Amino acid sequence: TTRMTATDRRLVDRTELARRAPVVAPALLNTLLVADVEGARVVGRIVETEAYDEDDPASHTFRGPTPRNAPMFGEAGHVYVYLSYGIHHCANVVCGPEGRGEAVLLRAVEVIEGIDTVRRRRNGRPDRELTDGPGKLCQALAIDLTHDSTDLLDPASPVRLERDDVDPPGAPLVGPRIGISAGVDTPWRFRVP
Fold this sequence. Notes:
Elements lengths: L9 E2 L2 H4 L3 H7 L4 E6 L2 E13 L26 E6 L3 E7 L8 E11 L1 H7 L12 H8 L17 E5 L9 E3 L13 E3 L2
Antiparallel strand pairs: 1-7, 2-3, 2-7, 3-6, 3-9, 4-5, 5-6, 8-9
C-alpha cells in the first residue's frame, strides 16, 4: 500500500472531539500532533493519552471553572496547556460539549518528523526517553503556555492535530492513569499496543 504524504494529511474534524473524554482519548491514538514552533517542524504520532472530565477528582475542572482551567470549558479542539510542578508544560486536547470541563492529556508521541530538532531540545537524551511523558513531549515539540487556548484545528495554528492513513488501534491498551493522587483506579489511560 502507498503511504500518505504530508500533503495528504487532513485536520481532525471538530465533531470527533466534541464527545466525552473517555471516548476521545483512545480515538486520538495514532493521530498526528504537528508543531511548527521556533522555526522548526516536529510531527509526533500520539501513542499514549489520558482522559479527564469535570466529574473526575483528578481533573483540573473538578472544582469548577477558574482562570487557569478556563480553556477546558471552551470549544472542543483547543489546547489546554498548564505547568506541572512549576517546571513541565503539559498539553491537553479540549473535548466534550462546550461548557463541560473535559480534556485528553497527551502523554507520549512517537516522533515521525523533526527528530534532530527533538534531540537538540531534549539535550541529547536517549531516543527512548525523548517524548515518553507529557512534560518531555511538550519540551520536544516546544509547546508552552503561549499555546494555551490555541485552536488545534486551525490550519494556521502553530500546533495542530492532523490525521493520515493510520487509524486508532482497534484494541488499545487500557489501564489506570499515572502520576495522580485522586481517581487513581479509573481506567482512562490509553496506549498503542
